[in-house]
Every structure is written in structure tokens, then in C-alpha cells.
Amino acid sequence: MICSYCQTENEKYEKCTFCGASLKLLRPKLKDFLFIEQSELPFDELILFHTYDILILLRLVREERTKSYSLMRSSRRPQKLLESILALFPLPKVNTGVIRHV
């Protein structure tokens, strides 16, 4: 039997004599398309993915995290800018009482 990982010929063994991989398990195939939603699959399903597919999913998740962090940072910047401007130039207090004309 030929090992699916290292392509070494083995005779009547359950494990490869060279790399130690199980000869009964089939090696996962590369997927044509991957979606970020697949990164939320349980471990039992992710273990069936090819290693390269797992690395692609990891890259997708990291890109999404970077986008979220950048969005969070950009939404906080205007708030800090406004606070610093108001500290330099405070708004005058407005009298909200009733105005009487004489």
C-alpha cells in the first residue's frame, strides 16, 4: 500500500513505516471554493479539510478581523477629534428659558 502523504511503499502495515501516517485514512482533497462561513464549522468537519484549505480559511478570518478593527478605529477617530475641538473651543451655553417681549 502506498502512503498518501509521503508516497512510500508499505507492506501490510496500518501505519507508514517512514512518516507514521495512518494508511487507512484518505488524504483530504483541495476544495474549489471556500467561504468565510466555513470557518465556523465544528472541528469534526474542519478536520476533513485539506491543510492548505485551512490556511486559506485562516487568511480569510484574519482579513475580516483586520477590517473590523480598522472600522472600529475609524469610527472612534472623529469622536476624539470632536472632543479635542470642543476642549479648545467650548460651545456657548444657550438659555432655554422663555423669552418675553416687552
Alpha carbon gap, first and last residue: 106 Å
Tell me the overall shape: rod-shaped
Largest sheet: none
Tell me the number of helical segments per DSSP (H or I, 4 or more residues long).
2
Summary, kept brief:
This protein has helices at residues 43-46, 51-88. It is mainly α and 102 residues long. The chain starts with 42 loop residues before the first helix and ends in a 14-residue tail after the last helix.
Describe this structure in words.
The chain has helices at about 45, 50-90. The chain is built from two helices and no strands. With about 100 residues, it is mainly alpha-helical. It is about 40% helix and about 0% strand. Among the domains are: about 1-25; about 35-80, no CATH class. The protein is rod-shaped.
Task: Identify the notable features of this structure and list them briefly.
102 residues, single chain, 41% helix, 2 helices
Present the secondary structure layout.
Layout lengths: L42 H4 L4 H38 L14
